[in-house]
Amino acid sequence: MTKPQLLNSNGNAQAIALSERVYWIGALDPNLRTFDIILKTANGTSYNAYLIKGSHGVAVIDTVKENFAEDFFARLESVARYEDISVIVLNHLEPDHTGALPELMRRAPHAQLYISQKAQTMLKALLKQEDLLYTSVLTGDCVSLGDRSLYFLHTPYLHWPDTQCTYLPEEKILFSGDVFGCHFCDSRLFNDEVGDFRFSFEYYYAHIMRPFKDHVNRALELIEPLLPLTKIAPAHGPILRDQPQRYVQRYRELSQSTLQSEVPDGEKTLLIFYLSSYGNTRRMAEAIYEGAMSIPQVRVSLYDLEGSELTPFVDLIEGADGIVLGTPTINGDAVKPVWDMLSSLVVINLKAKLGGVFGSYGWTGEAVRMVEDRLRGLKLRVPVPGLRIKLIPTEEELKLCHHFGQQLAQELVGLRHNKIIDIADLG
To answer: What is the pTM assigned to this prediction?
Structure first.
Protein backbone atom coordinates (compact mmCIF):
# COMPACT_ATOMS: atom_id res chain seq x y z
CA MET A 1 0.00 0.00 0.00
CA THR A 2 1.16 3.53 -0.73
CA LYS A 3 1.34 6.35 1.76
CA PRO A 4 -1.74 8.64 1.64
CA GLN A 5 -1.03 11.91 -0.11
CA LEU A 6 -2.18 14.55 2.36
CA LEU A 7 -1.31 17.41 -0.01
CA ASN A 8 -2.16 17.85 -3.69
CA SER A 9 0.27 18.97 -6.39
CA ASN A 10 -0.32 22.60 -5.41
CA GLY A 11 0.62 21.94 -1.79
CA ASN A 12 -2.95 22.23 -0.51
CA ALA A 13 -4.47 19.80 1.98
CA GLN A 14 -6.65 17.19 0.33
CA ALA A 15 -9.07 14.54 1.56
CA ILE A 16 -8.03 10.90 1.93
CA ALA A 17 -10.44 8.23 0.73
CA LEU A 18 -11.51 5.48 3.14
CA SER A 19 -13.78 4.14 0.40
CA GLU A 20 -15.43 5.44 -2.77
CA ARG A 21 -17.92 7.46 -0.70
CA VAL A 22 -16.14 8.09 2.61
CA TYR A 23 -13.23 10.49 3.24
CA TRP A 24 -10.95 11.61 6.05
CA ILE A 25 -10.94 15.42 6.21
CA GLY A 26 -9.17 15.89 9.54
CA ALA A 27 -5.91 17.48 10.61
CA LEU A 28 -2.58 16.40 12.10
CA ASP A 29 -0.95 17.94 15.15
CA PRO A 30 2.48 16.24 15.37
CA ASN A 31 4.04 18.77 17.75
CA LEU A 32 1.52 18.47 20.58
CA ARG A 33 3.16 16.98 23.68
CA THR A 34 0.44 17.33 26.31
CA PHE A 35 -3.30 16.92 25.80
CA ASP A 36 -5.81 18.31 28.31
CA ILE A 37 -2.94 18.95 30.75
CA ILE A 38 -2.72 15.33 31.95
CA LEU A 39 -2.03 13.18 28.86
CA LYS A 40 1.43 12.93 27.36
CA THR A 41 1.54 12.74 23.57
CA ALA A 42 4.98 11.62 22.42
CA ASN A 43 3.80 11.47 18.80
CA GLY A 44 1.34 14.35 18.85
CA THR A 45 -2.25 13.61 17.86
CA SER A 46 -4.73 13.81 15.02
CA TYR A 47 -8.15 15.45 14.90
CA ASN A 48 -10.13 13.08 12.74
CA ALA A 49 -13.16 14.33 10.84
CA TYR A 50 -15.00 12.48 8.10
CA LEU A 51 -17.19 13.14 5.08
CA ILE A 52 -19.74 10.75 3.57
CA LYS A 53 -21.32 11.17 0.15
CA GLY A 54 -24.84 9.87 -0.37
CA SER A 55 -27.11 10.03 -3.39
CA HIS A 56 -29.17 12.72 -1.63
CA GLY A 57 -26.71 14.70 0.38
CA VAL A 58 -23.35 14.88 2.10
CA ALA A 59 -22.65 14.33 5.80
CA VAL A 60 -19.74 15.66 7.86
CA ILE A 61 -18.89 13.84 11.08
CA ASP A 62 -17.03 16.02 13.62
CA THR A 63 -14.66 18.88 12.86
CA VAL A 64 -11.21 19.79 14.20
CA LYS A 65 -9.49 22.04 16.71
CA GLU A 66 -10.04 25.68 15.75
CA ASN A 67 -6.46 26.52 14.82
CA PHE A 68 -6.42 23.57 12.37
CA ALA A 69 -9.62 24.64 10.60
CA GLU A 70 -7.77 25.73 7.44
CA ASP A 71 -6.66 22.15 6.69
CA PHE A 72 -10.12 20.84 7.52
CA PHE A 73 -11.89 23.17 5.10
CA ALA A 74 -9.31 22.62 2.36
CA ARG A 75 -9.79 18.86 2.58
CA LEU A 76 -13.57 19.20 2.66
CA GLU A 77 -13.54 21.46 -0.41
CA SER A 78 -11.39 18.95 -2.29
CA VAL A 79 -14.26 16.45 -2.37
CA ALA A 80 -17.54 18.31 -1.75
CA ARG A 81 -19.42 21.60 -2.09
CA TYR A 82 -20.87 23.35 0.93
CA GLU A 83 -24.31 23.57 -0.69
CA ASP A 84 -24.39 19.75 -0.85
CA ILE A 85 -23.82 19.29 2.89
CA SER A 86 -27.16 18.28 4.41
CA VAL A 87 -26.00 16.68 7.66
CA ILE A 88 -23.45 17.58 10.34
CA VAL A 89 -22.92 15.05 13.13
CA LEU A 90 -21.09 15.76 16.35
CA ASN A 91 -20.14 12.60 18.21
CA HIS A 92 -18.53 14.66 20.97
CA LEU A 93 -18.50 18.36 21.82
CA GLU A 94 -15.00 18.97 23.22
CA PRO A 95 -13.24 21.85 21.41
CA ASP A 96 -10.82 19.54 19.60
CA HIS A 97 -13.86 18.11 17.77
CA THR A 98 -15.96 21.26 17.39
CA GLY A 99 -13.44 24.06 16.85
CA ALA A 100 -14.41 24.53 13.17
CA LEU A 101 -18.15 24.02 13.74
CA PRO A 102 -19.29 27.68 13.83
CA GLU A 103 -17.55 28.43 10.52
CA LEU A 104 -18.83 25.18 8.97
CA MET A 105 -22.39 26.10 9.94
CA ARG A 106 -21.88 29.54 8.40
CA ARG A 107 -20.59 28.03 5.13
CA ALA A 108 -23.24 25.28 5.03
CA PRO A 109 -26.32 27.04 6.50
CA HIS A 110 -28.80 24.47 5.17
CA ALA A 111 -27.14 21.53 6.93
CA GLN A 112 -29.00 19.93 9.82
CA LEU A 113 -26.97 19.42 12.98
CA TYR A 114 -27.30 16.10 14.87
CA ILE A 115 -26.13 15.65 18.46
CA SER A 116 -26.88 13.30 21.34
CA GLN A 117 -29.68 14.19 23.73
CA LYS A 118 -27.19 14.84 26.52
CA ALA A 119 -25.26 17.28 24.33
CA GLN A 120 -27.99 19.89 24.07
CA THR A 121 -27.09 22.18 26.97
CA MET A 122 -23.40 21.68 26.26
CA LEU A 123 -23.82 22.81 22.65
CA LYS A 124 -25.48 26.06 23.70
CA ALA A 125 -22.71 26.73 26.22
CA LEU A 126 -20.10 25.95 23.56
CA LEU A 127 -21.45 28.25 20.85
CA LYS A 128 -23.08 30.83 23.14
CA GLN A 129 -26.20 30.88 20.96
CA GLU A 130 -29.77 30.34 22.16
CA ASP A 131 -31.42 30.04 18.72
CA LEU A 132 -29.47 27.01 17.50
CA LEU A 133 -31.27 24.57 15.23
CA TYR A 134 -30.37 20.94 15.83
CA THR A 135 -31.83 17.45 16.20
CA SER A 136 -31.06 15.37 19.26
CA VAL A 137 -30.77 11.61 18.77
CA LEU A 138 -30.65 8.34 20.69
CA THR A 139 -29.69 4.75 19.89
CA GLY A 140 -31.56 3.54 16.83
CA ASP A 141 -32.29 6.96 15.38
CA CYS A 142 -31.30 7.28 11.73
CA VAL A 143 -30.72 9.98 9.13
CA SER A 144 -30.81 9.18 5.41
CA LEU A 145 -28.45 10.38 2.69
CA GLY A 146 -30.33 8.44 0.04
CA ASP A 147 -28.26 5.37 -0.68
CA ARG A 148 -26.30 5.88 2.54
CA SER A 149 -27.66 6.13 6.08
CA LEU A 150 -26.32 7.00 9.49
CA TYR A 151 -27.46 5.22 12.65
CA PHE A 152 -26.67 6.61 16.08
CA LEU A 153 -25.48 4.71 19.15
CA HIS A 154 -25.91 6.36 22.54
CA THR A 155 -22.60 5.78 24.37
CA PRO A 156 -22.49 8.32 27.23
CA TYR A 157 -19.46 9.00 29.42
CA LEU A 158 -16.93 7.77 26.89
CA HIS A 159 -15.61 10.02 28.08
CA TRP A 160 -18.08 12.93 28.43
CA PRO A 161 -21.84 12.68 29.08
CA ASP A 162 -22.58 13.74 25.49
CA THR A 163 -20.58 11.13 23.58
CA GLN A 164 -22.09 8.92 20.88
CA CYS A 165 -21.01 6.74 17.96
CA THR A 166 -22.32 6.83 14.39
CA TYR A 167 -22.66 3.77 12.17
CA LEU A 168 -22.72 3.58 8.36
CA PRO A 169 -24.37 0.18 7.71
CA GLU A 170 -23.98 0.17 3.91
CA GLU A 171 -20.20 0.09 4.36
CA LYS A 172 -20.05 -1.32 7.91
CA ILE A 173 -17.94 1.61 9.14
CA LEU A 174 -18.20 2.76 12.75
CA PHE A 175 -17.37 6.40 13.45
CA SER A 176 -16.56 5.80 17.08
CA GLY A 177 -15.72 9.21 18.54
CA ASP A 178 -13.14 8.85 21.31
CA VAL A 179 -13.83 5.12 21.66
CA PHE A 180 -11.00 3.01 20.12
CA GLY A 181 -8.95 6.17 19.63
CA CYS A 182 -5.54 7.27 20.84
CA HIS A 183 -3.20 10.23 20.70
CA PHE A 184 -0.84 9.10 17.96
CA CYS A 185 0.00 11.24 14.94
CA ASP A 186 1.25 9.53 11.79
CA SER A 187 0.63 10.87 8.29
CA ARG A 188 0.15 7.32 6.99
CA LEU A 189 -3.23 7.40 8.79
CA PHE A 190 -4.21 3.71 8.70
CA ASN A 191 -3.35 1.15 11.38
CA ASP A 192 -1.69 -1.22 8.91
CA GLU A 193 0.61 1.58 7.70
CA VAL A 194 1.52 3.69 10.74
CA GLY A 195 4.23 3.03 13.32
CA ASP A 196 3.67 0.91 16.41
CA PHE A 197 0.88 2.67 18.31
CA ARG A 198 0.02 -0.10 20.80
CA PHE A 199 1.37 1.85 23.76
CA SER A 200 -0.69 4.91 22.82
CA PHE A 201 -3.84 2.82 22.42
CA GLU A 202 -3.44 1.23 25.87
CA TYR A 203 -2.35 4.51 27.49
CA TYR A 204 -5.38 6.30 26.07
CA TYR A 205 -7.74 3.62 27.36
CA ALA A 206 -6.14 3.67 30.80
CA HIS A 207 -6.47 7.43 31.23
CA ILE A 208 -9.64 8.24 29.28
CA MET A 209 -11.87 5.16 29.28
CA ARG A 210 -10.85 3.17 32.36
CA PRO A 211 -12.73 5.38 34.87
CA PHE A 212 -15.91 4.54 32.94
CA LYS A 213 -15.60 0.76 32.57
CA ASP A 214 -19.30 0.17 33.20
CA HIS A 215 -20.12 2.52 30.34
CA VAL A 216 -17.51 0.83 28.14
CA ASN A 217 -19.25 -2.49 28.68
CA ARG A 218 -22.64 -1.00 27.85
CA ALA A 219 -21.22 0.55 24.67
CA LEU A 220 -19.69 -2.77 23.64
CA GLU A 221 -23.12 -4.38 23.94
CA LEU A 222 -24.26 -1.98 21.20
CA ILE A 223 -21.13 -2.28 19.07
CA GLU A 224 -20.43 -6.02 19.14
CA PRO A 225 -23.64 -6.95 17.26
CA LEU A 226 -22.37 -4.81 14.37
CA LEU A 227 -19.31 -7.04 13.87
CA PRO A 228 -17.60 -7.72 11.58
CA LEU A 229 -16.82 -4.10 10.72
CA THR A 230 -14.76 -3.06 7.71
CA LYS A 231 -13.34 -0.01 9.52
CA ILE A 232 -13.42 1.81 12.83
CA ALA A 233 -12.90 5.53 12.32
CA PRO A 234 -12.12 7.15 15.71
CA ALA A 235 -11.77 10.83 16.54
CA HIS A 236 -8.06 10.53 17.34
CA GLY A 237 -5.30 8.26 16.11
CA PRO A 238 -5.08 5.68 13.34
CA ILE A 239 -8.10 4.61 11.32
CA LEU A 240 -8.56 0.92 12.08
CA ARG A 241 -9.08 -0.87 8.77
CA ASP A 242 -6.92 -3.97 9.37
CA GLN A 243 -8.79 -6.41 11.65
CA PRO A 244 -10.82 -3.74 13.46
CA GLN A 245 -12.45 -6.51 15.50
CA ARG A 246 -9.17 -6.91 17.42
CA TYR A 247 -9.62 -3.48 18.95
CA VAL A 248 -13.19 -4.19 20.01
CA GLN A 249 -11.97 -7.42 21.59
CA ARG A 250 -9.17 -5.58 23.36
CA TYR A 251 -11.64 -3.11 24.87
CA ARG A 252 -13.68 -6.05 26.11
CA GLU A 253 -10.58 -7.55 27.72
CA LEU A 254 -9.54 -4.27 29.31
CA SER A 255 -13.01 -3.62 30.69
CA GLN A 256 -13.21 -6.92 32.58
CA SER A 257 -11.88 -7.35 36.11
CA THR A 258 -8.94 -9.76 36.17
CA LEU A 259 -9.51 -10.35 39.89
CA GLN A 260 -12.88 -12.01 39.28
CA SER A 261 -11.20 -15.22 38.13
CA GLU A 262 -9.13 -15.41 41.34
CA VAL A 263 -11.84 -14.79 43.92
CA PRO A 264 -14.71 -17.29 44.41
CA ASP A 265 -18.30 -16.09 44.22
CA GLY A 266 -19.52 -14.77 47.53
CA GLU A 267 -16.05 -13.88 48.80
CA LYS A 268 -15.13 -10.25 49.43
CA THR A 269 -11.65 -8.74 49.12
CA LEU A 270 -10.11 -6.22 51.50
CA LEU A 271 -6.72 -4.62 50.84
CA ILE A 272 -4.74 -2.98 53.66
CA PHE A 273 -1.92 -0.58 52.74
CA TYR A 274 0.32 1.16 55.23
CA LEU A 275 3.52 3.15 55.65
CA SER A 276 5.25 3.31 59.00
CA SER A 277 8.10 5.54 60.21
CA TYR A 278 8.94 3.82 63.51
CA GLY A 279 6.88 0.65 63.34
CA ASN A 280 3.83 1.96 65.20
CA THR A 281 1.50 2.18 62.21
CA ARG A 282 2.84 -1.21 61.10
CA ARG A 283 1.80 -2.77 64.42
CA MET A 284 -1.64 -1.28 63.97
CA ALA A 285 -1.82 -2.63 60.41
CA GLU A 286 -0.92 -6.14 61.51
CA ALA A 287 -3.58 -6.13 64.23
CA ILE A 288 -6.20 -4.78 61.81
CA TYR A 289 -5.20 -7.50 59.34
CA GLU A 290 -5.67 -10.22 61.98
CA GLY A 291 -9.04 -8.80 62.96
CA ALA A 292 -10.30 -8.69 59.38
CA MET A 293 -8.98 -12.21 58.78
CA SER A 294 -11.21 -13.52 61.58
CA ILE A 295 -14.34 -12.87 59.51
CA PRO A 296 -15.24 -15.70 57.10
CA GLN A 297 -15.71 -15.00 53.38
CA VAL A 298 -13.31 -12.02 53.42
CA ARG A 299 -9.94 -12.38 51.69
CA VAL A 300 -7.55 -9.90 53.28
CA SER A 301 -4.18 -8.73 51.94
CA LEU A 302 -1.56 -6.58 53.70
CA TYR A 303 0.95 -4.38 51.83
CA ASP A 304 3.78 -2.12 53.01
CA LEU A 305 3.92 0.86 50.63
CA GLU A 306 7.58 1.48 51.45
CA GLY A 307 8.62 -1.64 49.57
CA SER A 308 6.29 -1.35 46.60
CA GLU A 309 5.61 0.47 43.35
CA LEU A 310 2.17 2.04 43.29
CA THR A 311 1.13 1.24 39.71
CA PRO A 312 0.38 -2.50 40.19
CA PHE A 313 -1.86 -1.70 43.14
CA VAL A 314 -4.26 0.29 40.96
CA ASP A 315 -5.40 -2.92 39.24
CA LEU A 316 -5.79 -4.66 42.60
CA ILE A 317 -7.82 -1.81 44.07
CA GLU A 318 -10.07 -1.65 41.02
CA GLY A 319 -11.08 -5.27 41.52
CA ALA A 320 -11.29 -5.17 45.32
CA ASP A 321 -14.33 -4.53 47.48
CA GLY A 322 -12.56 -2.42 50.08
CA ILE A 323 -9.30 -0.63 50.85
CA VAL A 324 -7.80 0.49 54.16
CA LEU A 325 -4.96 3.01 54.35
CA GLY A 326 -2.55 3.42 57.26
CA THR A 327 -0.44 6.54 57.59
CA PRO A 328 1.45 8.28 60.37
CA THR A 329 0.99 12.02 60.78
CA ILE A 330 4.17 13.91 59.89
CA ASN A 331 4.23 17.72 59.88
CA GLY A 332 0.47 17.79 60.23
CA ASP A 333 -0.14 15.70 57.11
CA ALA A 334 -0.33 12.18 55.72
CA VAL A 335 2.89 10.89 54.17
CA LYS A 336 3.54 11.48 50.47
CA PRO A 337 3.29 7.84 49.24
CA VAL A 338 -0.27 7.70 50.58
CA TRP A 339 -1.22 10.88 48.71
CA ASP A 340 0.53 9.52 45.63
CA MET A 341 -1.55 6.36 45.85
CA LEU A 342 -4.76 8.32 46.23
CA SER A 343 -3.95 10.51 43.23
CA SER A 344 -3.28 7.40 41.13
CA LEU A 345 -6.80 6.13 41.81
CA VAL A 346 -8.58 8.81 39.78
CA VAL A 347 -8.32 6.57 36.70
CA ILE A 348 -10.62 3.90 38.18
CA ASN A 349 -14.19 3.79 39.44
CA LEU A 350 -14.20 3.65 43.24
CA LYS A 351 -17.85 4.49 43.85
CA ALA A 352 -19.39 2.55 46.76
CA LYS A 353 -16.21 0.63 47.61
CA LEU A 354 -15.46 0.37 51.32
CA GLY A 355 -12.77 2.68 52.69
CA GLY A 356 -11.03 2.94 56.03
CA VAL A 357 -8.10 4.85 57.54
CA PHE A 358 -5.84 4.38 60.55
CA GLY A 359 -2.49 5.63 61.81
CA SER A 360 -0.23 6.59 64.68
CA TYR A 361 0.75 10.14 65.56
CA GLY A 362 2.92 12.13 67.91
CA TRP A 363 1.16 15.46 68.27
CA THR A 364 -2.22 16.12 66.67
CA GLY A 365 -2.92 13.24 64.23
CA GLU A 366 -4.58 15.14 61.37
CA ALA A 367 -3.59 12.59 58.72
CA VAL A 368 -6.40 10.10 59.38
CA ARG A 369 -9.16 12.68 59.02
CA MET A 370 -7.54 14.19 55.93
CA VAL A 371 -7.30 10.83 54.18
CA GLU A 372 -10.87 9.97 55.17
CA ASP A 373 -12.06 13.16 53.50
CA ARG A 374 -10.16 12.26 50.35
CA LEU A 375 -11.67 8.77 50.27
CA ARG A 376 -15.14 10.29 50.48
CA GLY A 377 -14.22 12.68 47.72
CA LEU A 378 -13.32 9.66 45.59
CA LYS A 379 -16.85 8.30 46.24
CA LEU A 380 -15.84 5.54 48.64
CA ARG A 381 -18.04 4.90 51.66
CA VAL A 382 -16.30 5.22 55.04
CA PRO A 383 -18.73 3.66 57.53
CA VAL A 384 -16.24 2.99 60.35
CA PRO A 385 -14.59 6.09 61.86
CA GLY A 386 -10.84 6.21 61.38
CA LEU A 387 -8.59 4.91 64.14
CA ARG A 388 -5.81 7.09 65.60
CA ILE A 389 -3.33 5.96 68.25
CA LYS A 390 -0.73 8.18 69.87
CA LEU A 391 2.83 6.92 69.54
CA ILE A 392 3.42 3.23 70.48
CA PRO A 393 0.17 1.23 70.64
CA THR A 394 -0.47 -0.60 73.90
CA GLU A 395 -1.92 -4.11 74.10
CA GLU A 396 -5.34 -2.62 74.76
CA GLU A 397 -4.98 -0.32 71.77
CA LEU A 398 -3.94 -3.21 69.56
CA LYS A 399 -7.19 -4.92 70.60
CA LEU A 400 -8.98 -1.80 69.32
CA CYS A 401 -7.12 -2.27 66.04
CA HIS A 402 -8.19 -5.91 65.89
CA HIS A 403 -11.81 -4.85 66.44
CA PHE A 404 -11.43 -2.11 63.79
CA GLY A 405 -10.40 -4.76 61.25
CA GLN A 406 -13.33 -6.97 62.29
CA GLN A 407 -15.77 -4.11 61.83
CA LEU A 408 -14.50 -3.36 58.32
CA ALA A 409 -14.68 -7.00 57.27
CA GLN A 410 -18.15 -7.40 58.81
CA GLU A 411 -19.28 -4.33 56.88
CA LEU A 412 -18.15 -5.96 53.63
CA VAL A 413 -20.24 -9.09 54.18
CA GLY A 414 -23.23 -7.37 55.77
CA LEU A 415 -22.70 -8.64 59.31
CA ARG A 416 -21.97 -5.36 61.07
CA HIS A 417 -24.78 -3.90 63.15
CA ASN A 418 -25.32 -0.18 62.73
CA LYS A 419 -23.89 1.68 65.69
CA ILE A 420 -26.08 4.06 67.64
CA ILE A 421 -24.15 7.34 67.59
CA ASP A 422 -23.46 8.89 70.94
CA ILE A 423 -23.38 12.69 71.05
CA ALA A 424 -19.95 12.43 72.66
CA ASP A 425 -18.67 10.79 69.47
CA LEU A 426 -19.38 13.98 67.55
CA GLY A 427 -17.11 16.16 69.68
So the answer is: 0.83
